[in-house]
Amino acid sequence: MVRWGAICLILSIFCGGCTALPNNVNTEENPAPVSMENAPIVNYAVPSFTPNILIDQNGYQTQGEKTAIVKGTRLPEAFRLVDCETGDVVYMGTVENSVFNKEFGIYTGSADFGDYVDAVSGQYYLECDHIGRSYSFPISITGYQDLFEEIYQEISTDCKSGEATIEDVLALLIAYERYGEIFTDKDQNEVPDVMEVLRQWIEQIDYGQIDAEQGALYAAGLAKFSYLYQWFDLDFANTCLQRASTVFARTQGAVQRDAENFFALTELYRATGLFTYRNRILNYKALFQNNYDFLEENGYLYGAMTYMVTRQSVDVELCDLFMNRLIAKGEEISDGHEEMIYSVGAGNNGAEDILRQAKQLSGANYVLQSYQYNCDMEDFVHCLMGCNLQSVCYYPEDGDRDIYLILLAQLASIQEYRPLVEA
Length: 423
Prior knowledge:
This protein has 423 residues and is an alpha+beta fold. Helix content is 49%, strand content 12%. The protein is built from 14 helices and 9 strands. Strands 1, 2, 3, 4, 5, 6, 7, 8 and 9 form a 9-stranded mixed sheet that branches. The chain starts with a helix and ends in a 7-residue tail after the last helix.
């Protein structure tokens, strides 16, 4: 009866069937003509649809991990990879890791086509019986390098114009320090282009206008640049280090112990070797011993990484603490990463939580060089770029681009050492 009543209501609206007439309706036998609307006004929300096969919308690299999510009220046993240009099925595989979610009443599974290795770049899509096909996506030899180059050029342009943030600058410095092999020297003057770009940014900054809240990060960036740039121009490197010390000293009236302050102390200590910085670093030791999750803050994570690689005298116990926490955090994230990526709900809070965990895993992977972590990192990036239950490509608008830069730099550096064809 409810459904029939709704149909009658709709018919009455479109056919004019009302039980009572409004006061302004002409009831004469030959009424005067009235104006008609050019088109009916219909207000309704169009439901959004996502495909049942979810992929990385920016594509996959030829020699990398290639995994998609398959979802539905029932899952097919197999999937097919199709070449868009020819329509040929170039690879077939089975849908695995099927999980049922009671709340949403659907199954999810994974389609792994990493074994498909084709040296020729192309456009593809995935398809399954009774649930349809995915969006099309590229597979290319230089996938991560291309994505890295895109975001690197964007930040470089902002550095040259003085519009880059200190977070962007720190990301370039961290990426260069960890993965220097992927940065070019196009003018062949034996100074990497990224260091010349960063020098342009440094020369444009009015350091007298830096407030205390941001001062510690600027000091960390200047000190890190000084340490890395000393091999190219020692005089300018020393100028930057003096400036870093000055900027940091100005922050101390307002800033006490926090993550950014710690990061600046580790960079200044590595660059200078001064025990005043070393002793202040040790003042954080009790905090780290009593706080398992301190690595979730950028300043503590990056500062710990700097402290572990410095050639200056260090507290061995503190270094061990950093290493053990980093390894434990990496294992924790690796063990639980599939649950976050393949979660049916919006439990991963968009890009924010995934980027936070990927950033920590990136640090652990830099230290350990784990094949499993490499695969997990690729899974995180695929998820951020559309391989998620909402089929949302978060990159590049959603999330901090400085973290994206570091993640893509790491994956591009891994790609550098992969052969184009398997032995």
